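SEQUENCE-TO-STRUCTURE ENTRY
===========================
Question of interest: how does this chain fold, as expressed in backbone structure tokens?
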Amino acid sequence: MKIYIIRHGEAAKSWEVDRDPELSLRGIEQAQNISDILAQEDLNDFQIISSPLRRAIETAEPISKKLNKEIEINESFIEIPSPGIEMSERPSWLREMFSRDVHQFEKPQAYWRDRIINVTHSFKSPTLIFSHFMVINVLVGYLQKSNKIVTFYPDNCSVTKMSLNQGMLSLEKIGSSQESVVN
């Protein structure tokens, strides 16, 4: 059974400015492009799940319309929780999280990680998941047996492909990574 996790398109604002930004114009174009690519596959049996955040839902909408399927909102696939962290402090907090091992998570992040893994294991039908950078890293790191929270930098609208076979989740293909410019 196939499970694809797609990172949302480019957001109109960064997460230290807006907790739930919509897609930018570029993000809307990215969402349409990934919808066109996904539509080339046979997705008739797939369910569509999204994080409750607008940028993920808006990324899922074009393929939802093409397939004439509802988007199921699932809190399990929301971005990493940062309770008590001021918005202005979120970038430095997140950079610190990048260097941590999963064993160093506090309770909210440990519960979040476990929930992502458990819910993904519980799917009964092929699934498209529209989610976030850190959620994708949770699943990739888990499947690669890495203790690092960040194992790669998924690009906007990258598609990471997994499969679930007799209760065993496996990584089929890692999505495209963000390009970095070396100065």
The longest strand covers residues 159-165. The longest helix spans residues 107-121. The chain has a mean pLDDT of 93.
